[in-house]
Amino acid sequence: MLGLGTWEIGGRMGRDTSEDAEGITAIRGAIELGYTHIDTAEMYGAGHSEELVGLAINDFDRDSLFITTKVLPEHLRYKDVIKAAEGSLKRLHTDYIDLYLIHVPNPKIPIKETMQAMDLLLSQQKIRFIGVSNFSVKQLKEAQDCTENKIVNNQIEYNLLTRHSGMYNVNIESEIVPFCQENDIMITAWKPLVKGKLFGEKNKLLEEISEKYKKTISQIAINWLISKKNIITIPKSTNVDHLKENMGALGWKLDEEDMKRLDEEFR
Ligand SMILES: NC(=O)c1ccc[n+]([C@@H]2O[C@H](COP(=O)([O-])OP(=O)(O)OC[C@H]3O[C@@H](n4cnc5c(N)ncnc54)[C@H](OP(=O)(O)O)[C@@H]3O)[C@@H](O)[C@H]2O)c1
Fold this sequence. Notes:
Bound molecules: NADP nicotinamide-adenine-dinucleotide phosphate
Strand order of the largest sheet: 1-2-3-4-5-6-7-8
Distance between the termini: 24 Å
Order of helices and strands: EHEHEHEHEHEHEHHEHH
Low-confidence stretches: none
């Protein structure tokens, strides 16, 4: 339900090794705190994020963890998907990926080709579940039509402030979220804390609700997501206090009235 995001751990679009120790310590620290789900991608740090995740998880029981990674949109040809997955497995030092996502749709490559490769990886038990990311309802339906296997997850930009349109999608809350909820597809909400922008909002309702529940703004923002049907989320942090704080978003629930007030306030 609450995973660890790793964008910028190990670099952005390029490999950055200058903060490796901090990254590994953060991932290990998160697992010690009880995080079991880690989200990464071959894109992050040009593969270095996966390498750091691989090093960090080495000391833990692999089967107790849930590792998600993603294939780049330029690697969606049949052979490229297989090669990309092999690369991720190697960097992650693992025999299997729990959830393998198509990072971003690529209209230049027939989705059938990509899904056939995903099916092969699944049959070889190199991946446990197939998912997508940043897919519209139309793209989700097209992908699902190309495979007998269930697409279990759509990872999309969704948070208190991003409700209608984000970097890749429009009609997020009006179409994509309800479609996934009705079709038993889990939604992983990316950028749940709006990269920290939420903390500068100084919103009266957010402050009132934070005071009422004795929870921080980040805990309210995360709880608002995970209180919704079929929604999980993956805040990124390398700060142990933040990791602990974000864990405090679990184990309680905003009541329906406050959910509605938050829904309306930022819509
Ligand atoms: N599928 C996609 O296309 C896609 C796109 C973007 C992101 N993602 C995934 O989603 C994850 C989350 O998104 P994101 O990293 O862009 O943004 P985010 O999780 O909304 O925000 C991360 C930022 O918030 C800070 N932060 C975390 N917890 C905090 C707290 N309790 N109090 C104050 N600041 C806090 C972090 O700093 P500190 O490290 O200092 O705590 C970091 O600067 C990514 O890491 C990645 O795994 C996927």
